[in-house]
Design goal:
Blueprint lengths: L2 E6 L1 H12 L19 E7 L2 E10 L10 E9 L8 H15 L4 E7 L3 H6 L3 E9 L3 E9 L7
Parallel strand pairs: 4-5
Antiparallel strand pairs: 1-2, 2-3, 3-4, 5-7, 6-7
Length: about 150
């Protein structure tokens, strides 16, 4: 079983986003604002030359945080058959590594309520109360501060 994480294009994220995050919705709903920006990065988790998980990173600030440079994670998705096998964690760690190389001091995102536990295990914290994202469901704003120096 060969696996790797590689940079991919935004359109390569759509099939996975569609199945996991936008099931039953038109494929157009898989396109996110800012997907095509030069500062946006997409990673795919390949297993035997097939993408089974994706994550996207947007350089964007959130007014809840005072940060020099922050990135938002969006579209983190792993095909159902491959969930709970450490693939999502590997993708998030890859995103964190990239953000650290970009000298970012914060990563934030809107996590589905069902995914909060997953992110808490990776030391992300909740800010504020649960809120609803139209046609997607309940979410929490979560974040993690990145230290400038390397530490685990």
């Amino acid at each position: 079983m060969m696996h790797s994480i590689q940079k991919i294009t935004s359109t390569e994220t759509y099939p996975i986003r569609h199945i996991v995050l936008r099931a039953g919705k038109p494929i157009e709903s898989c396109q996110f604002n800012g997907d095509e920006l030069v500062s946006t990065l997409h990673f795919g988790y390949y297993l035997n030359h097939q993408i089974i998980g994706v994550i996207s990173i947007f350089e964007i600030d959130n007014s809840h945080f005072i940060a020099q440079k922050s990135f938002q994670i969006r579209g983190m998705a792993v095909l159902p058959t491959f969930q709970k096998q450490g693939i999502g964690e590997a993708l998030v760690k890859e995103a964190e590594k990239f953000c650290t190389t970009q000298k970012a001091d914060l990563i934030w995102f809107n996590a589905r309520t069902t995914a909060v536990g997953f992110y808490q295990k990776m030391r992300y914290e909740i800010v504020g109360a649960e809120f609803e994202i139209n046609e997607v469901g309940p979410h929490f704003l979560m974040f993690k501060k990145l230290s400038m120096g390397r530490r685990n």
